[in-house]
């Protein structure tokens, strides 16, 4: 660890009120929101890749923190929530440079998943999910490039949204892979998720009755464990009763698998990550944890030959899915292939689980479409999310449907 780490010498540095390890071990911004607004009286946290004026944006790595000056201004998303009346309570732990789905930071620890004890919270927005699930914040900002809001939301039993790509400003947010990066957020209930969305997306109410058609991603469902499929089935039935019978489709398209699309996503993401951070890594030679080091080393090895065909294929994939959904259809799928892995799972097991998870999350990432995850079921006492992917730009209507659908949810079915 860098000896100039500004987080060092803080007695572990954690705020005394953070028993979950959700917040970065550093001085915490405590900023009151506006005197009035839609979010007045609510507390929010921000993943430590969002700029907060006067504070170092640490991005989950001590060497990043020590090589960057304090932010000169709030990220517009942080400013929007403050202007909406919400109070900022602190900066939350992220995986190093937001490049993981696990939520296990080598330097700052693994935030507690209160709804699945002994299991990972998911990443990279791990601290934000932990803080909201544990009641330390009412909502929290995260980012979602390859699933970093959707996966933690599923593991921690939260509502989470990855919005349509480019719907929300990424100014003042550390970039990872810019053609996939989005700002997302968490909440414990669908109504608050929508209220936060109104502030971040510009204020539109949304219309739950927009939706007329349903498609069930059969190949995505097949990636989930049998227990997850069984636990989600009654909630899919309820959704069909509300809208219409779901038509089974293959999300990947004909003669190709979701795993193949996952590799296209990973190669494209890797090229963008190195374009964004390669020069800093070469200059600073940061100390990464073993998992992060392995991932960045792999990304460095992805050349243009790996992506020259992936780029046009991605556009064809996005067009096909957009045409399928039109302006009134939803695609239903499991958010994650299973419940959160145990914190002590071996590296190979985590890699296999991550590949299956990315095979699910790459659908919205490649197509740039909004995806909401709903914490509707449990397996072995641990949360399981059901996801809906919607047409581009329909974020408000998607959140309105989620709120209406979950106003009086049935008791969660545990298997």
UniProtKB/TrEMBL annotation:
SUPFAM superfamilies: Amidase signature (AS) enzymes. Signal peptide: none annotated. GO terms for molecular function: amidase activity. Residues 33-398 form the Amidase domain. Its EC number is 3.5.1.4. Keywords: Hydrolase. InterPro entries: Amidase_dom, AS_sf. This is Amidase. It comes from Pelagibius litoralis.
């Amino acid at each position: 660890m860098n000896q100039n780490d500004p987080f060092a010498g803080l007695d572990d540095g954690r705020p005394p009120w953070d028993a979950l390890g959700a917040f970065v071990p550093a001085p915490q911004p405590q900023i009151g929101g506006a005197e009035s607004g839609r979010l007045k009286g609510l507390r929010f946290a921000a993943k430590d890749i969002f700029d907060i004026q006067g504070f170092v944006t640490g991005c989950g790595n001590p060497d990043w923190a020590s090589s960057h000056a304090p932010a000169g201004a709030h990220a517009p998303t942080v400013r929007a929530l403050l202007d909406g009346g919400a109070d900022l309570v602190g900066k939350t732990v992220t995986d190093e440079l937001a490049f993981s789905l696990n939520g296990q930071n080598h330097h700052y620890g693994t935030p507690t998943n209160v709804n699945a004890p002994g299991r990972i919270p998911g990443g990279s927005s791990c601290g934000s999910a932990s803080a909201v699930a544990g009641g330390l914040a009412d909502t929290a900002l995260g980012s979602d490039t390859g699933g970093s809001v959707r996966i933690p939301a599923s593991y921690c039993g939260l509502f989470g949204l990855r919005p349509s790509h480019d719907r929300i400003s990424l100014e003042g947010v550390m970039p990872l892979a810019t053609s996939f990066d989005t700002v997302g957020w968490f909440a414990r209930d669908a109504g608050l998720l929508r209220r936060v969305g109104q502030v971040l997306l510009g204020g539109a109410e949304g219309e739950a009755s927009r939706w007329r058609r349903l498609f069930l991603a059969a190949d995505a469902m097949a990636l989930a464990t049998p227990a997850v499929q069984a636990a989600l089935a009654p909630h899919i039935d309820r959704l069909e009763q509300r809208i219409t019978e779901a038509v089974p489709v293959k999300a990947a398209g004909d003669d190709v698998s979701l795993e193949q699309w996952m590799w296209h996503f990973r190669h494209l993401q890797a090229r963008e990550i190195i374009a964004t951070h390669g020069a800093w890594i070469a200059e600073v030679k940061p100390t990464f944890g073993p998992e992060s080091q392995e991932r960045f080393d792999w990304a460095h090895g992805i050349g243009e030959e790996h992506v020259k065909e992936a780029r046009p294929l991605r556009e064809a994939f996005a067009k096909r899915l957009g045409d399928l959904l039109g302006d009134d259809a939803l695609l239903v799928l499991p958010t994650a292939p299973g419940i959160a892995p145990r914190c002590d799972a071996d590296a190979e097991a985590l890699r296999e689980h991550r590949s299956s998870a990315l095979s699910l999350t790459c659908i919205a990432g490649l197509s740039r479409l909004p995806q909401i995850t709903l914490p509707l079921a449990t397996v072995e006492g641990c949360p399981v999310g059901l996801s809906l992917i919607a047409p581009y730009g329909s974020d408000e209507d998607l959140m309105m449907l989620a709120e209406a659908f979950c106003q009086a949810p049935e008791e969660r079915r545990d298997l």
